[in-house]
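Hello Y.,

Per our agreement to keep a running log of every chain we model this quarter, I'm adding this entry. I've kept the format consistent with earlier entries: sequence first, then predicted structure.
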Amino acid sequence: MRRTGHTWVLFMFALLLRSEVSQAAVTGWPEAVARLADAKSTAQFCVALFKGHGNVADTSRGRLLYDIAKADFDSVIASLITALAEGGTPESLPNLQVKLKRGTSRLARLCDLLGPVRYAGRSIGDLFRGPISALLKPLTDAVSALYSNYQRDDAPARLAIRSQLEAARWPGFDQVQAVR
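Predicted structure for the entry above:
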């Protein structure tokens, strides 16, 4: 991999993700929604790198892993949006946590497909392996916070949360642009 502006973006992104994951527990809905947005950004970044540098033979596996992880995260987000709706009955919290774990695992496997792509003597997959596995606890905490506290928020706050949750949905695989 050439040392381009995108390479430095990758390096800085990995450092940012490591520091973001190590921050304190979720304290409110803005932080909780930000955790879901972080997962979306990580997924998009891995797909962009995969499309720009990945092996063509792995394309169908990468697409499948991304689409299944996307479905898990979209399901969690849809359940949280249902919980925010007046009178909505959300899916059980343990089911949401299982979907988060599955989705995070699939995201890690997608980024592992980038393993052969090298930067500074390390594979890109290695750069993401720790940070992605460390996303699970903060994501679980975030979903628990949103799930448990949605009834305490007034209508305008629930509308703002819903809007931000909708923005945290992952784009389709084909919508993500490759990073060269």
